[in-house]
Amino acid sequence: MLKIAVPNKGSLAETAAQMLHEAGYVGRRDPKELIVADPRNGVEFFYLRPRDIATYVGSGALDVGITGRDLLLDSGSAAAEIAALDFAASTFRFAGPTGVFTELEDLADKRVATSYPGLVGDFLAASGVTADLIRLDGAVESAVRLGVADAVADVVETGSTLRKQGLEIFGPVILESEAVLISSPTNATGIDTLLRRLQGVMVARQYVLIDYDLPARLLEKAVALTPGIESPTVSPLRDPEWIAVRAMVKRDGTNHIMDDLYELGARAILVTPIHAARI
Ligand SMILES: Nc1ncnc2c1ncn2[C@@H]1O[C@H](COP(=O)(O)OP(=O)(O)OP(=O)(O)O)[C@@H](O)[C@H]1O
Ligand SMILES: O=P(O)(O)OC[C@H]1O[C@H](OP(=O)(O)OP(=O)(O)O)[C@H](O)[C@@H]1O
Ligand SMILES: [Mg+2]
């Protein structure tokens, strides 16, 4: 049985559970369940705090897990990132009161509040800047206003939490983070199937199928607009002057492609979602 660690709470939990559900795995029915067996798929799920997942997977107690890249690096665990999962994208940044800090070196001997002392400590050490790290559990943006720190280092998505606290980002990007699949150092058997299934879910979310009819002489120009992943399917129509084309296209920008195809001379342009995929 492949032992899989899944976030039980926080920003990653809902999307992680949804992806596993779409990938055909059994989920928990009750949010208090901590372990769920899925013998049909040969896996067992352990619902854990996202911050602890890298520790369990790095120690080999569990085989794989879903967590954030920032949490993985902060933990210093021996687990390895094997795939990005296309959700919970954020950047990890320094921020201070508006107008006070401009560059990393301004942090020398200052107090920096963070929930990620491992990640921030490593970054400062690699940059040769010495600062005093204040470890907080969350809501670190309040630390400056409340006087326990001069600056913060935290997850930034839209930046609205920082702005509301009168802070602005400065200095280099510490990390580009997102949800990732991590593996224990002893690459367990069965990871490949899990990874392929999750990649299938990502593809089904990112792509749609486009079908259209086209005068055959326009095929090369149309294929340049919809190259597909391998190569588009081209089928004959009853009218020998016309063909039908089917290809996968990125969901974003589908309407632009439809406009361009119509302009070119394609007709009966249809877009359908992909329910599941193995690429
Ligand atoms: N606003 C956000 N946008 C994108 N990712 C985020 C955001 N907030 C947190 N994350 C990501 O979620 C992970 C943190 O998990 P955690 O469980 O601490 O989430 P949380 O929402 O901060 O929960 P908690 O309430 O326990 O602090 C990290 O990988 C972090 O990058
Ligand atoms: O740039 P934004 O879109 O504002 O998002 C970033 C905020 O979201 C997370 O907070 P969370 O809600 O997890 O609270 P926490 O700080 O207590 O973990 C993160 O820690 C930042 O504070
Ligand atoms: Mg948080």
TrEMBL record:
Instruction: Identify the InterPro entries for this entry.
Output: ATP-PRT_HisG_long, ATP_PRibTrfase_cat, ATP_PRibTrfase_CS, ATP_PRibTrfase_HisG, HisG_C, N-reg_PII-like_a/b, N-reg_PII/ATP_PRibTrfase_C
Q: Which family does it belong to?
A: Belongs to the ATP phosphoribosyltransferase family. Long subfamily.
Keyword match ATP-binding: yes
Q: What does this protein do?
A: Catalyzes the condensation of ATP and 5-phosphoribose 1-diphosphate to form N'-(5'-phosphoribosyl)-ATP (PR-ATP). Has a crucial role in the pathway because the rate of histidine biosynthesis seems to be controlled primarily by regulation of HisG enzymatic activity.
The family database entries (NCBIfam families) matched by this protein are listed as: hisG, HisG_C-term
Q: Where is the ATP phosphoribosyltransferase catalytic domain?
A: 49-200
Name the Gene Ontology biological process terms.
L-histidine biosynthetic process
Q: What PROSITE patterns does the annotation carry?
A: ATP_P_PHORIBOSYLTR
Q: What is this protein called?
A: ATP phosphoribosyltransferase
Q: Which residues form the signal peptide?
A: none
Q: Supply the Gene3D superfamilies for this chain.
A: 3.30.70.120, Periplasmic binding protein-like II
Give the record's keywords alphabetically. Answer: Amino-acid biosynthesis, ATP-binding, Cytoplasm, Glycosyltransferase, Histidine biosynthesis, Magnesium, Metal-binding, Nucleotide-binding, Transferase
Which pathway is this protein assigned to?
Amino-acid biosynthesis; L-histidine biosynthesis; L-histidine from 5-phospho-alpha-D-ribose 1-diphosphate: step 1/9
- Keyword Glycosyltransferase appears in the UniProt entry: yes
The GO cellular component terms are: cytoplasm
- List localization entries: Cytoplasm
Name what cofactor the protein needs. Answer: Mg(2+)
Histidine biosynthesis HisG C-terminal domain ranges (all copies): 204-275
| Control of this protein's activity | Feedback inhibited by histidine.
MF terms in GO:
ATP binding; ATP phosphoribosyltransferase activity; magnesium ion binding
Main EC class the enzyme belongs to: transferase
Give the primary localization class: cytoplasm
EC? 2.4.2.17
The reaction(s) this protein catalyses: 1-(5-phospho-beta-D-ribosyl)-ATP + diphosphate = 5-phospho-alpha-D-ribose 1-diphosphate + ATP
